[in-house]
Amino acid sequence: MNGLNPNPRHTWAGPLHGAVSDRPAIAGPDAAAKRPHDGISLLGTTALLFEAPGETGLEVQRRIWSLAREAETWPEVREAVPGVNNLLVTWREPPRRLAPLADRLAAAWEAAPPLALEGRTVELPVVYGGEGGPHMADVVAHTGLSPEEIAEIHAAPLYPVYALGSHPGYCYLGGMDPRIATPRRKVPVLRIPGGAVSIGGSQTGVSASPGPSGWNTIGSTEMSFFDAARTPPALLQPGDSLRFRIAGVVR
Amino acid sequence: MIRLLACGALATVQDRGRLGALRWGVGVAGAMDAPALAGGNLLVGNPDDAAGIEIQVLPLEARFESEAVFAVTGADCTAVLDGVPVLPWTVARARAGATLRLDRPAAFRPWGARTYLCVAGGIDVPVVLGSRATQLRGAIGGLEGRSLQAGDALPLGRPAGDPPPPGTGLVPPVLALPLAVGGVPALRVLPAAEHDRYTTDSLAAFWGEPWRVTPQSDRYGFRLAGSTLVPLAPMELRSHGIVPGVIQVPHGGQPIIQMCDAQPSGGYPKIGTVIEADLWRLAQAPIGARIRFVETDWDGALAARDAIDGWLEAARRDLSCLRPRSAA
């Protein structure tokens, strides 16, 4: 058994036994161990999650985009949606046997070349702290930095859009400086406003509409990220970039 | 057209959901109790993708502006059409100008939390990104992307054909496919990626103890109360796609089951996923109710899916025998 797999039961050894035993050639107690497919797990019968090994980075993310392009052409697959260092694969109809699909996904990952997307850059003015950044104090407490330092560090990079998700038009961004990383909140907040700029763990993003969130809101901005009548409906796509400009820091 | 004369909070137009828009960050929305909507659509002769009204807070009162065939499914309620009681899960016909009142039953402890009103032709709001379902976050689909209120006029589509005769009924899934452990409604769960990263005591509690549905439970998610689930070590995950049914455990240790209006991605650890075939059972668990989790595997989850599909197909077959010849 691969020692890296923290969760052998719920990759292919346990609940998927029926699927594995469909393959008599390698059936047996260690059949699954030969193909543990670290990083593949189930989300019920609706979807499968593939998590790439290693650190988050643009190079890995480009391979995720590439894997998504490949997987979404498979007949069983409804959507292949990139996350941050991972890929969600939803089924049109859940396959009777999972193992062949898992094998195929693992092989496709090994073969996936980094996909370079030519994106646009959008600039967003942000007011940090104050009413629009109710959790700035928590980030200050966690990092030991001042609000001004946090704003400066946050606004410095050009952030590539890694993935869309969370809610309509929302972008997961890569490249946040780890000095301002702050854990997600112990209990999610029931409503943060649209335009909230927030930090969750080592990630940052801007909410595109009001809704619940487990992240720490440090500032606010105004931008329409989503319009269902537009084609495509989302303003930004993986491969585009965001730059934050400090419009003010409120203490 | 039907006009709402009275309407409780959070009633929405829903269909089977918006599939295929996750790439833009758009979740599935759709009916929380999918079999109730599907059964209602069958009863009134609608196609599978027709929209109905999901009702969370009774009473609701509606006037049919033109003659229409309708059915009330899902959670128990008393339905009265112009003073005459209407059976649930049954085809009924309303004349133009008739008023339907759906109320909370007083005489006994009612089952369920969400009632569906399906009308022949379906609620004909515009299709947005492939679906009529209301997604409150982002105000997409449904009637202007919002929940319904008194005074709203809901357009009806053209009925697809002659529905079965009034009085025709279906046995609801809660009677056809009951599932409980020790008298507590049960949900089958497939373990998810972080399941094994919890303490033995936490896993014993997760699988062995009842969980209470807290008042902070809605179409976004069900927040549960019970023993605190403790991870073996702190986890901070990277954001990934999630689906309705995923049971997340925030750092506070009280699980949240993501539901139809859930974000399509998240980063809290996932202990399991309520299988697709049992989501309707959760949708019908009222606030304060207790639920239990039962572990299943891929084959078990597929069998459960087959069972609910089988219920629907048997209903489709039976009803098609009762439809007037002209519909053929």
Automatic annotation (TrEMBL), chain B:
Keywords: ATP-binding, Hydrolase, Nucleotide-binding. It holds the Pfam family CT_A_B. GO terms for molecular function: ATP binding; hydrolase activity. Residues 23-311 form the Carboxyltransferase domain. It comes from the Bacteria. PANTHER family: 5-OXOPROLINASE SUBUNIT C. This is Allophanate hydrolase. It comes from Methylobacterium variabile.
